[in-house]
Design brief:
This protein is of the alpha/beta class and about 475 residues long. The protein contains 14 helices and 15 strands. It binds 6-O-phosphono-beta-D-glucopyranose.
Length: about 475
């Protein structure tokens, strides 16, 4: 269904995010017929492009990066025809009157802040001065949303000075991932799982986001963040919320966000003994973290594993184990819910009898697998084996990875539709920082040095111990 026609301004249009994610996402939606006639995208950045030279630039980027089957000359020309460009000085006056003159009053107006957070305040202020912060316009802001609670609060206050909360779209692209939304469909669209979705039946939950890439090229940002700020405070926290939250009364923005907020507030402080931080060493032909970050004395973690507890009636006693890292063995993101063992085994102690696991795989090969125990086929007596009930989306729905829209495609369309369900509310972000700040402060005050781990591994040894000492083990990263 086409969305309403719009003027979307991308501040930072020549930057990495705009080039790699936002523009290709818009092109794909256009290719799919979702952009209404007359929808326009206006690039705004410091570089002195004209409409035409920027179009040429975007054409060459898309030509280079689009997979062959998405290259369609007619669609590409139509898409480029929607583009315009205004050179702008975010902190000065240049370009602002031109931009204001280009905005149409009778269409959806959206401003994408694809710039560093230090410029958010200036952008908000300039939009106000030039009369562009109309009551119905929307702004889209990227992570990192603050560096800690204090800066996040300040950022919220800055934006709130010029925009109402219903106009502010804080992106966490994990919420746009197909399987993440499926998590809600599975939980709240079926009767099967919800009765078991609590501490009485669930032994523990594992959330893994493993990456094979290092931080070379973005060490400057990463070294000041580390895995906790870069991944846990936002993406992993959102995943945890969707698993742990109570059913919202409707799939509506505030209903969903109220429930997520309650989860974050119910998180216990994490004890130092329940956290393992790691930093990748050199190996396999790759440089070490210290070299990638160009900071030989860095104590920043490129890996973190921790055990969290949600103090709620539903989850008391069920641990949530989270781990994420760079330069790990494989790129894989998954959530695994391990159910408790049956109270009594009528088959005696048997090798094949394992706990039921519901594994929700975010990427690659999106899908959901439920491991169940059955009898091994054949005449060998009652021997038990574990088999997966497998719902690979590609197989079940005849879709390919390619058909599964990129998170940015869905989220940008939601901005135009005016649907904030998959965006973070200001109080949610602050609550997440309120939980992370003391954890970070504790290791900083101890001047703790992260443990070294080999590239291509599953992280430091101690991360394994974090589960072993509870009589559990991590799922393999593969
Ligand atoms: C970003 C982080 O938000 O998410 C990166 O800053 C990380 O460090 C990326 O690599 C992971 O996203 P995805 O979609 O590739 O899992």
């Amino acid at each position: 269904i086409p969305v309403d026609t719009f003027d979307l301004v991308i501040f930072g249009a020549t930057g990495d995010l705009a080039t790699r994610k936002i523009l290709p996402a818009l092109y794909r939606r256009d290719l799919a017929g979702q952009l209404a006639e007359g929808a326009r995208i206006i690039g705004a950045a410091r570089t002195e492009f004209t409409d035409d030279t920027w179009r040429a630039e975007v054409r060459s980027v898309l030509d280079e990066t689009l997979p062959a089957d998405l290259r369609d000359t007619v669609a590409l020309d139509r898409f480029l025809g929607r583009l315009g460009y205004v050179p702008i000085d975010v902190r000065g006056e240049a370009g602002w009157p031109e931009l204001a003159a280009r905005m149409r009053a009778d269409v959806v107006q959206a401003y994408y802040f694809s710039v560093g957070p230090s410029l958010f305040g200036d952008l908000a202020q300039r939009l106000h001065v030039h009369g562009m912060n109309t009551a119905e316009c929307r702004i889209v802001v990227e992570k990192p949303f603050g560096h800690d609670l204090e800066t996040a609060r300040a950022l919220n206050a800055t934006l709130a000075a010029h925009f109402d909360e219903h106009q502010i779209y804080r992106i966490d692209h994990y919420l746009g991932k197909e399987t993440v939304q499926n998590l809600m469909a599975i939980r709240f669209g079926n009767m099967l799982f919800e009765p078991l979705w609590n501490a009485q039946y669930v032994d523990h939950i594992q959330i893994t986001v493993a990456e094979t890439v290092g931080v070379a090229g973005r060490g400057g940002y990463y070294d000041k963040s580390g895995a906790m700020r870069d991944m846990v405070q936002n993406h992993m926290m959102q995943l945890l919320c969707l698993i742990a939250m109570e059913p919202p009364y409707a799939f509506e923005p505030d209903a969903v966000r109220d429930e997520k907020l309650k989860v974050i507030r119910a998180l216990d402080p994490v004890q130092p003994a329940d956290i393992v931080r790691g930093q990748y060493a050199a190996g396999n032909g790759h440089a070490s973290y210290l070299d990638d970050a160009e900071n030989p004395a860095s104590r920043t973690e490129s890996f973190i594993a921790l055990k969290a507890h949600v103090s709620s009636w539903r989850w008391k006693g069920t641990p949530f184990y989270l781990r994420t890292g760079k330069r790990m063995r494989a790129r894989t993101s998954e959530i695994a819910i391990t159910f408790k063992d049956p109270p009594h085994s009528i088959f005696g102690a048997q090798e094949g009898q394992k706990s039921n696991v519901l594994a929700i795989r975010l990427q690659p090969n999106e899908g959901i697998k439920l491991k169940v125990t059955i009898k091994e086929p054949g005449p060998g007596g009652m021997r038990l084996v574990e088999v997966p009930l497998d719902m690979s989306f590609a197989e079940a729905l005849g879709t390919s990875d390619r058909d599964i829209a990129d998170a940015y495609e869905r989220l940008i369309m939601d901005v135009i539709r005016g649907n904030q369900t998959l965006f973070m509310r200001g109080d949610e972000v602050e609550a997440a920082w309120a939980w992370t700040d003391p954890i970070i402060a504790a290791w900083e005050s101890r001047e703790e040095v992260p443990q070294s781990y080999d590239p291509g591994s599953s992280g430091p040894e101690d991360a394994l111990m974090l589960m072993h000492r509870d009589g559990r083990r991590w799922r393999e990263v593969k």
